[in-house]
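ok so i was messing around last nite and threw this chain in just to see what happens. nothing serious, just curious
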Amino acid sequence: MDLKSSGCEYTWTNKQDGAYRIWSKLDRAMVNDHWLATFPSTSVHFLPAGVSDHSPALVTVLAEARRPRRFSFLNCWISMPSYHATIRDCWSIPVTGSAIYKLLAHLRNVMTGLCTFHKSHTLGLSRRLTLAKDAPDSCSILLQEHITCPMLLQNHKTALHSYLKLKQAEISMLTQRAKAEKIISNDSNTHMFHARIKERHQSQVIGEITDHNGLQRA
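result:
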């Protein structure tokens, strides 16, 4: 396919005078789908021919502007103790303006607050989970020597509770991510589509016919 072009419309001339002068667009810059997928902002500019009979083609590959990372809401946040307080505090920030502006501003404040909440609670969850898993084990070792110590028993209970909460959050995140990736890849829709096609083909198969004498033939 041709690249998006600018500059000289006609890229070749025979350099003759008057009515003998011929103009034509002979030069093109073409790429395939793989190139456009890798360099989507590529364009070509045809420069004046100068002493040549062909216009030079200047191909420009622009760097893609870095887009801000898309905000994703994690379902596991809802079960965390400070989630509702974070939403309430962010929503209560005073905003002035029209009704639609105030709504958008409140939503933006909530999104900013949840980004900070994510950094404090769920960012690097795998590393947090590894560290949290060691805490109950350490308490268990100490309990082997002091099996009746109430403080160690409480510490072990607290550490185990924290670990299980993080584990539950990790499972929720992985499940949510898997569902999102499945929707994007259309795996379920593709499977349903092929199943429906097979069903349609099967319904159109003629296994036998009845002739004019009433006899069935395969």
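not much to say yet. The first strand starts at residue 4 and ends at 7.
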